[in-house]
Amino acid sequence: MLRVFVMSAHLQLEQEDRPDTYVTGSFRDIHRDTRVVQKEQNPVWNETLVWYLDGELLDSDPFVTVHLREWSTKAVDRNFGFASIALGAASERPRTLINIKNLALRDDNLKPTGCTITVKICFSPAEPATDLPSKKHDFRKFICCPIFAKDSETEELVPKETDIQEATPMPTPKKVLVDKKQVFQVRVGIIECRQLQENNIKPVVKVSIGDYVFRTRIKFGISPYYNETFVQTFDERPMQLFDQFIDIQVLNSKAIRADSLIGVFRIEIGLVYESPGHALMGKWLSLYDPANLNAGLRGYVKVNLCVLGAGDQAPDAAHLPDSGDLEANLLQAAVMPAVRRAMLQLFVYRAEDLSPIRSNMDVDPTGGSVDPSLEVDFAGKLLKTRVVLRDANPVWNQLMFFPMQMPSMCDLIKLSALDGEQNEDSSVLGTAFLSLSQISSAGNDMGKNFPGFLPCFGPSFVTLYRTPPELMNEEDNLENVGSKEGIIYRGRVLVELTTYMDPDPVQRIEAVPEQYITRMERYLPQIRYGLCVIFYSATMLADIKEQIQFEVSIGNYGNKFDGTCKPSASTTQYSHAVYDGNHYYYLPWYDTKPMVAITSFWENISYRIASMNAMLFIHNRLKKNLDILKAISSPKDPVVGAVWKMLQKELVEDCKRPLPGWEAPTVPTMLDLQLRKLRSQLLLKTSKAAEKTSWKTPLQKLIAKAEVWLNRIASVASEAQVSMPDVMIWMLCDDKRAAHTRVRSHTIMFSKAGPHARGRMCGKTQTIFLQSAQNKGKAAPIPVVLRVRMWLGELADSAEFLKCCEGRILIYAETYENQKKTHGIWGTRDLMQHPLFRCHWEGQPSQRKVPTACGMAVGWRVGRGAPEKALAGQRDKPHRSARGSV
């Protein structure tokens, strides 16, 4: 075997000429190329070119030629010279590296070009011919992982012994391999990476198949998705090929070369060939740092590995069964120390507002026909609570234990509310997700002041959503209902999550201790919230003959088809669409705009949403200034200094402003305390870094610094403990739901802490495009465009809403509640004794008719000149067109 190590080169060129260069090595008319180094006058490769001699000596051709060339899209590449290197010294001293530094290159006329190259040469004679090694691995014992890969030539592959006697996949029958040259194809598919133990990185995956090197595209984040496949064909003896390695390295493209390595994994090509089907499909590789094994896992990369001979059928990666158990598909290197194990415990207390869904996308008002249970899925492990019969507000009080390793391969915890006693008969009522990245922190950027914290959550409600079959795509299977977050509110589940280190975790489920149930209640005091929506216009309507109205709801509050909540003015008046004279129709609201108002009860989470909005305010303002900075074309533009000073001033001002906090008697959760500490430390560190950065720094470095700050702020701006559902706006056509949109609650939330802590669209006019509810995901025209103004906040702050209104609020119909004071307590008891109070909700139809002889109560009188307000709330006249002067 002849190896030529191409180290570096020097180009004698003009100052502005920086070409893309690569090296070609030629030996016995066989060519090998290095990778392309871009825009470098002194390129560095550090790559090896290999020629297999098949036992022959170096007597017939004692020279190897190296060419330094420019890579370009032109028909003929530019040549910077070549050099012929005699191999006599390498033949006399086998297995010895011969250094050749600054070897002068010559052109075709043998004149020096001024360029030099540095290489190393090594010749390794062939070993005596032997039969193929009989190294075989019993994959029946460890095909379900963990598999321990070979890390060096002195380490033997040690399969993990198991006592499982059940049927497992058998190795694929192979034809007898003879010790002669054969054609093999090695395929390496890089699917994705997860939980890379770095922050603010741009990872790239470097794949080495033997002596051939490939690289993926550069991505951003700690969990990038690639889906790239690299193929290399070999014409070698099996004994030579199977002893080579597939090296997978994850690098940080932003770091300098010495610090760019994040983690590596090495596996023998022969081990892949011995696998069933000659492939390892959908496997997760655990990355490690070979220079610091005690650092533990550095992340995971998902791969598809295949080694195929002539006539072998390649597996279809697109139709592989997904078991969901990630840890069962994990490959770990034998050199790695034992992984850190932890126990994730999930307290499932109770749920509310669970009810079966009907075909018209409305919930059953009674909710009595639901038999709910909660199924939790984490990293392919499933646990399920008991079934509570005929209860829309079930109480479980069960504790689930899930083993996990740190860092976790899986980021999402899926909670699914089911209706039915058995799994095969269960239907998904709603789905919610918890992201571990939002409820934990590694503390990599905070230094010693903040070491990070393990996943924790609540006690807090998580909101369940579901997409009904009416809104699903035709290609979606009903079995996938609940695999993604839906659009319709389906209830809430009260859960709590804690994590602790456990060397021997066991998956199980048990009852919640009584003291935890008592402690949980202090986190759940509710307050009254007010939601107001003003409709300014509804345009771009189709030719709809039915009467149209809009409904606003938050949870079950405002849902006109739901009977579990008190009624509210949540719908606009009925209207007929009017032709606009061009292409579309609109609703004739003219100078009087409809307005809806809803009162609801939720937990006091205003401080959480205010803190999240404050972080989003900093993020949005920094992003706006950064976009202005990126728009500057020339680094020498004098406006660079002014733009950077504005960015610096606003960022420091925002970071030094204290975050909104909670007030007594609100009790913060553990996640509230940890997030506040993390955000405060990050803002303090960012403000100090911004103050030290001068506008005289090169423009590209200024942009890079601002992008790092932007990404760090975005990583901590999310809030998982938002127990309030989002706001839904529905368009109803003759009481049938025709279109919808979902507005995030935090975007319209009001806060007394200031404008920086309010939602981005709180009290502001916005344009909303509704989505059709009848086309099942097909590309369809926009059903309607709304111009609305929305406000959400505590009812005690409702006076602030009037400051957002541009007109005068008129009440055409109102509903009020009759109450009676009994023993000093106001309530609705004993109201049936008086005929005027047969229904305690005035304006709603009573269950009993008032007697004809019912008279006025003593001391009551009717004022004159006051018309009945309820009479003004009539439907629009059924006109299909209107005429006006222009």
TrEMBL record:
Keyword Transmembrane attached: yes
Q: How does it sit in the membrane?
A: Single-pass membrane protein
Chief site of localization? membrane
- The domain of life for this entry's organism is Eukaryota
**Membrane is among the record's keywords:** yes
User: Do you know which InterPro entries this protein is assigned to?
Assistant: C2_dom, C2_domain_sf, C2B_Ferlin, FerIin_dom, Ferlin, Ferlin_A-domain, Ferlin_B-domain
CDD domains linked: C2B_Ferlin
Q: Subcellular location, in the record's words?
A: Membrane
Q: Which residues form a coiled coil?
A: none
**Annotated keywords:** Membrane, Repeat, Transmembrane, Transmembrane helix
Q: Which GO terms describe its biological process?
A: membrane fusion; plasma membrane organization
A cellular component term (GO) from this record? membrane
Domain C2, residue spans: 1-100, 165-282, 322-450
Q: What is this protein called?
A: Fer-1-like protein 5
What organism is this sequence from? Podarcis lilfordi
